[in-house]
Design brief:
It contains 13 helices and 16 strands. With about 475 residues, it is α+β, with helices and mostly antiparallel strands. The strands form 3 sheets. The protein has a 7-stranded antiparallel sheet, sandwiched between helices. It has a 6-stranded antiparallel sheet with strand order 12-11-10-13-15-14. The chain has a 3-stranded mixed sheet with strand order 3-2-16. The chain is globular, with a radius of gyration of 21 Å. The mean pLDDT is about 95. The protein binds flavin mononucleotide. The site of flavin mononucleotide (FMN) has 21 residues, from helix 5, helix 12 and strand 14.
């Protein structure tokens, strides 16, 4: 029997011969949706009654010193800090604040600190704070542009302050249809990699939970479980996260006219649980050859998704191994590395952590261009990382977790790459071509291109000071 997420995975798989924005012919998939319709561009974030109590967050972010790669590798010993508003402000901005804007004819596009497939940014963050600490008690929605906490509900009952991440399927489905379900988890993993790195480098204890009582968490943050559902929880402190509501929360509005994707709703519901699970293990600390010096805030603000990589450039093996080791610490999902240009390493496909014996040797630039829907970045990168799973062997909750893990690795690859002078971009792919590429009957979850940048983007801004920028367009032609 096919599970709900296995059905979603199959019905949202790309294959040659069908355009990526064309729906598969199946009654479970919306057939008449016009995608990318700027007339009904979803809101960039939720809206609430403006009379709700609001706490502005400090605009100055407390500086940190630890090198980003060492933070990811778990080798730094940061002195524990008190969880106060300034610390929370730093964590929220470096995870999900507005750091850049782009003027488009129909909207000012808001870019957030962490990347998002197609710049759809389908996530919302809430902070649930019980009585008795340095933070204002209540359930708060994080306003990413005003950089403020909007109180939407009464304080939760006992526990550690919790960050709840939700996904809005319409915001990403506007462009990607039902495949946006995958994107929501990818984007959440990407964003959480920055949130956890910000917490770790700031001396805050943070634990990630992907198993939690879905209904209770949905109610805690006033979500409806259809147009908005919970994706992950982070507790800030050593106790279990405070997830039990003491009263109802304001619902707010996710959009003027959100579209439901029944396939996504069914996939999400099928994985719902009633109890809190264990926090994710953080992995043993590991020594990496090259740690760089740039602290997390510098790397986060200097990162972006590189639109053009230098096909003539290469990365040293030392840098490539440092990026990979830091990004994949504690990750058990199989990851493959397609090497194009890493000094002293034969081009080909490798199964991490073995970067000495390719499972498939040879030059694969042209093949990756094709497998990634004729996009230039995976061809021009120095190496491409592919997160995989056997989707047929996953239950509905494990499916969510697999996509989240793939996103977490994507985000960490980004951070480690920029910390060491390289660049990165997430990347989508033709599902049908993966077994042929890897030589194994596995499903791909997410690709990440890592390479030599062709330009340096303007750094993003601090809260209330997003930087206006012009987007570089990717190179699309296949020159092979
Ligand atoms: C999970 C994920 C998948 C992505 N897939 C692609 C892709 O297929 N092609 C591409 O050019 N960029 C891709 N991107 C990059 C996004 O377009 C980029 O993150 C977004 O425009 C925001 O810009 P920024 O990352 O520079 O902040 C992806 C990003 C993420 C996080």
């Amino acid at each position: 029997m096919e599970t709900a997420t296995q059905a979603l995975h199959r019905l949202t798989s790309y294959e040659p011969g069908r355009e990526w924005d064309e729906p598969i012919d199946d009654p479970r998939v919306l057939q008449d949706l016009v995608t990318n319709d700027v007339e009904r561009l979803p809101w960039f974030y939720k809206r609430y009654d403006p009379s709700l109590p609001t706490v502005p967050l400090p605009l100055q972010l407390p500086p940190t010193m630890a090198p980003t790669v060492a933070v990811l590798a778990g080798t730094v010993d940061v002195a524990p800090a008190e969880l106060n508003l300034a610390q929370l402000s730093r964590v929220l901005h470096l995870a999900a604040g507005v750091v850049r804007t782009v003027e488009r004819p129909y909207a000012t596009w808001l870019f957030r600190a962490a990347g998002s497939a197609g710049a759809r940014f389908p996530l919302e963050l809430y902070v649930a704070v019980p009585e008795g600490g340095a933070l204002p008690a209540g359930v708060h929605w994080y306003h990413p542009q005003d950089h403020a906490l909007v109180q939407i509900g009464p304080p939760p009952r006992a526990g550690a302050p919790a960050i709840v991440v939700t996904g809005i399927p319409w915001r990403t489905g506007w462009r990607y249809r039902e495949r946006g379900y995958r994107h929501t988890y990818w984007d959440a993993g990407t964003m959480l990699s920055q949130l956890l790195a910000a917490a770790d480098s700031g001396g805050l204890s943070a634990s990630l939970y992907s198993r939690f009582p879905d209904r209770a968490v949905t109610e805690l943050v006033g979500a409806d479980g259809v147009n908005e559902w919970p994706v992950a929880v982070v507790s800030l402190g050593d106790e279990a996260p405070a997830l039990e509501a003491s009263g109802p929360a304001a619902a707010g509005e996710v959009d003027a006219d959100p579209v439901e994707f029944p396939l996504d709703t069914a996939a999400q519901r099928a994985g719902d649980l009633e109890a809190l699970g264990e926090p994710w293990p953080r992995g043993e600390p590991l020594d990496v050859a090259d740690e760089g010096t740039a602290p997390v805030e510098q790397v986060v603000l200097s990162r972006s998704s590189q639109r053009r990589m230098d096909p003539e450039g290469s990365l040293s093996r030392r840098v490539a191994l440092s990026i990979l080791a830091a990004a994949l610490r504690g990750v058990s999902l199989p990851h493959f590395v397609v090497v194009h240009a890493v000094d002293g390493t034969e081009p080909g496909v490798y199964r991490w952590p073995d970067l000495d014996h390719p499972v498939r040797a040879g030059e694969l630039r042209h093949e990756l261009y094709r497998v990634c829907l004729d996009q230039g970045l995976p061809r021009d990168a120095a190496f491409v990382v592919i997160g995989t799973a056997d989707v047929g062997g996953l239950d509905d909750r494990e499916y969510r977790e697999a996509q989240l893990t793939a996103g977490l690795v994507e985000g960490r690859l980004h951070l480690a790459a920029y910390a060491l002078g390289a660049a990165a971009s997430g990347m989508t792919f033709l599902d049908s071509e993966i077994p042929g590429l890897l030589g194994e009957p596995l499903d791909a979850l997410l690709f990440t291109c890592v390479g030599v940048p062709e330009y340096t983007p303007k750094p993003g801004g601090l809260p209330h000071r997003p930087v206006e920028f012009r987007q570089v367009t990717p190179r699309l032609d296949d020159e092979d």
